[in-house]
Amino acid sequence: MTFTKLTQIQKDLIFGTLLGDANLQTGSRGKIWRYRALQKSEHKEYLFNKYEILKSLCGSKPRENVVIDERFGKQTKRWYFNTLVEPSLIFFGNMFYKYDSIGERWVKDVPLKVQTFLTPRALAYFYMDDGALKWLGHSNAMRLCTESFSNEGVNRIQVSLKNLYNLETTLTKKKLKNGFIGYRIAIPEKSSSAFCELIKPYLVDCMKYKVSDGNFGKFKMVDL
User: Fold this and answer.
1) Theoretical Cys-Cys bridge with 140: which of 106, 116, 177, 192, CB 3.0 to 4.6 Å?
2) pTM assigned to the model
3) Class of domain 114-210
C-alpha cells in the first residue's frame, strides 16, 4: 500500500476535526485506518470543504443519506465521505486512539502532544466541528464541546491554548447520557476577541454563525 505524504493543510484538518466530530475507523486492530466525516445537510458546504482538501485520499465523492429518528418519525439528511484506508493515517490513529479491551472498542482522547499540532487552522477546524456560542445576543463567550474526552485530555487542550496563544479558558460541567461528568472548555469574554482573530482566516462561510462578532452576535459573510 502506497504511503501518501500529507500536506500541511491536510494535517491541520485531520488533527483539528479529530478533536471535533470526525473519527478514524479500523477493521484491522489499528494496523490501518480510514478517515470519516459526517455533517447535516445544512452544513453541506463545510463537508465539501473537507472533501476538497482530502480528496487525494478518497476513492469516491461525498454522498447523502437519510436517517429516521424513530422517537419522532423525523427525517434527518446528512452528507458524508470516507477516505480510503491510508498508511499516513496510522500516525493519527496512534495519537488519538487506544483500544479498550474490556469494552472491546476504540476510545478517542486528546493526544499527549496536542500542543505540537494545534495550529490556528487546526483550532479553526476543531471549533467549526465542535464549538458553539455560549449565549447568542447576550454574550461574546464561546465554548468547545470537549465533554467526551478524559479530564486529563481536556486539561491538555486548556494548557495548549494558554501556552500557544495566551488564551484564558474555564471549565463547565456537562453530564452525559451514561452518567459520566465531562467538561466543556469555555472561552470567556476576555479571550473571545483574540480567539476569533486566530481562527477567522480559516472559517467556512456556513460555519461563521458559531463565532462571536464582538457585539453579542455572530459573524456575517460580509464581515470577512
Assistant:
1) 192
2) 0.91
3) alpha beta
